[in-house]
Specification:
Length: 262
């Protein structure tokens, strides 16, 4: 496909079989220009990978490199990568050689020059006037691009998250309780704090969790993230899933409360 065709088809929706031309490399004259003055929403997997690549805790990462937005519709927090406070509002990870965390760069940086359109189809997000990589002759299908960028890794957690975000209960009544918003943030984005919460609070007195699950979430961030999604389903919608509440603990707490009132 020549550039002329691609320019005229900028607004088309593409499925996995559709093709486009693109190549991004240090020789292109716009190299690094797109790594600034941009709003990048981070997925939980992005935060999980980026903080590991930087060798810092999830709490440090969120504090240093992100800011939060609250969705009007759901009341749930979204995490956005914080750009530098310089004239070009450059990304903190861009260097002359390109992205310094290339292997662990965020989902939307991987997908660029495309973006998802409706969860099934894709559209161009880059413009040929500014992204000269679109004028290169290397041809990709959407499917091959997804494979090259390792995007399958994100599909399942992403699907799970959409499931939580789209739940009727959330949309009908936006969450206004800051403690609930913080639980959402902790369980999905602040995995070190979530792990501490599970193992160092009374969490394991309240919930009976199978030993094999505990073993996995103690060490493995991805398992902990899936666990967090399950826990959020319980906290937000009362769906218990594999979480079993310890009835003796609840009875004990009830007696304590009744005792303190009497
Ligand atoms: S994370 Fe990497 S690819 Fe994404 S904007 Fe920053 S430097 Fe560019
Ligand atoms: S604008 Fe396009 S070609 Fe230029 S650096 Fe960004 S992605 Fe690569």
């Amino acid at each position: 496909m020549k550039l002329k065709d691609q320019t005229s088809s900028q607004d088309r929706l593409m499925t996995w079989d559709d093709s486009f031309c693109f190549k991004c490399y240090p020789g292109v004259d716009c190299f690094n220009k797109c790594c600034g003055n941009v709003t990048i929403f981070l997925t939980p997997i992005d935060v999980m990978r980026m903080r590991k690549a930087l060798g810092i805790t999830s709490e440090e990462f969120l504090e240093r490199h992100t800011h939060r937005l609250i969705s009007h519709n759901t009341g749930l927090p979204a995490v956005v990568l914080r750009m530098n406070e310089n004239e070009g509002k450059t990304c903190p990870f861009v260097t002359e050689e390109g992205c310094s965390i290339y292997q662990d760069r965020p989902y939307s940086c991987r997908l660029f020059p495309l973006d998802t359109a409706n969860g099934v189809e894709y559209k161009f997000i880059a413009k040929p006037e500014t992204c000269h990589g679109l004028a290169e002759s290397e041809t990709w299908t959407v499917e091959r691009w997804r494979k090259e960028q390792d995007l399958r890794y994100y599909d399942d957690p992403d699907h799970n998250l959409k499931d939580i975000m789209a739940a009727d209960q959330v949309w009908e009544e936006p969450i206004a309780d800051p403690r609930m918003q913080d639980m959402f943030l902790m369980a999905l984005y602040d995995l070190d704090r979530f792990r501490e919460f599970i193992f160092k609070s009374s969490f394991l007195q309240k919930f009976k969790i199978d030993d094999d699950i505990l073993e996995k979430i103690r060490e493995d961030d991805l398992s902990l993230l899936y666990f967090g999604m399950q826990w959020l389903r319980f906290v937000l919608f009362g769906q218990k899933g594999f979480l079993k509440i310890d009835k003796e603990y609840l009875e004990k707490k009830k007696r304590e409360v009744l005792g303190s009132q009497g």
